[in-house]
């Protein structure tokens, strides 16, 4: 990706997460070449919640926990958005996480983003 802005690289990947799937902060960080920057990916997602074209609700922590739920303007908004896409959530954790997990390394051509 020509743009060197970290947040823009995060958003470019997040926009590609398919409906009904989730990924993790760490998976995005690793994909964009910053494997120790999962927390920064979280900051990027928190800052993107008002952007309607960035599906920040589809990015969860490495265990499938809705760790960013407090940034959605209500304690259940993130959960409700995921459930509206057919993703089961119980006790703030995505169920069948491995089944609905979207790995950008598998799904995308990384060379396109570099």
Automatic annotation (TrEMBL):
This chain belongs to the protein called O-6-methylguanine DNA methyltransferase
Q: Name one GO biological process term.
A: methylation
InterPro entries per record: ATL_DNA_repair, MethylDNA_cys_MeTrfase_DNA-bd, MethylDNA_cys_MeTrfase_DNAb, WH-like_DNA-bd_sf
Q: Which residues form a coiled coil?
A: none
Task: Kindly give the CDD domains that the UniProt entry links to this protein.
Answer: ATase
Top-level taxon in the UniProt lineage: Bacteria
Provide the alphabetized UniProt keywords. Answer: DNA damage, Methyltransferase, Transferase
Q: Which SUPFAM superfamilies does the UniProt entry name for this protein?
A: Methylated DNA-protein cysteine methyltransferase, C-terminal domain
Q: Name one GO molecular function term.
A: methyltransferase activity
Q: Where is the Methylated-DNA-[protein]-cysteine S-methyltransferase DNA binding domain?
A: 5-87
Q: Does the keyword Thylakoid apply?
A: no
Q: Does the keyword Ligase apply?
A: no
Q: Which NCBIfam families match?
A: ogt
Species the sequence originates in? Owenweeksia hongkongensis (strain DSM 17368 / CIP 108786 / JCM 12287 / NRRL B-23963 / UST20020801)
């Amino acid at each position: 990706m020509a743009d060197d802005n970290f947040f823009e690289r995060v958003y470019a990947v997040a926009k590609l997460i398919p409906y009904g799937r989730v990924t993790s902060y760490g998976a995005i960080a690793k994909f964009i070449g910053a494997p120790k920057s999962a927390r920064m990916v979280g900051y990027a997602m928190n800052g993107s919640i008002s952007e309607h074209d960035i599906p920040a609700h589809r990015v969860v922590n490495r265990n499938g926990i809705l760790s960013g739920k407090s940034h959605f303007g209500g304690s259940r908004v993130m959960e409700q958005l995921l459930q509206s896409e057919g993703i089961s959530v119980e006790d703030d954790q995505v169920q069948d996480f491995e089944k609905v997990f979207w790995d950008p390394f598998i799904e995308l051509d990384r060379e396109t983003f570099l």
